[in-house]
Amino acid sequence: MSKQDYGPIVANKSASSWVPAPSIFTGGAGNLMADVPLLRLRHGLAKGSAPQGQHRGHLTIAIEHAHANKHWGVMLSQVDA
Description:
Strand content: under 5%
Helix content: 10-25%
Largest sheet: none
Oligomer: single chain
Radius of gyration: 14 Å
Number of helices: 1
Order of helices and strands: H
Structural class: little secondary structure
Distance between the termini: 27 Å
């Protein structure tokens, strides 16, 4: 795979600029991805390894908010970009 497969390299760290690797596409339509629970993105991160301070983006803030308020059922697709 080349750099073009994943889109341009940008400083924007929001999920709106992410382009997934082709291997995580679901079967059927090639433009659909599996949705995941927002708080699942926290699993596997060492405590304190998420971006802090001015480096926190919308996704990190959304994950922190969902965890603090016990929003266990929120899906990634429900987060506003």
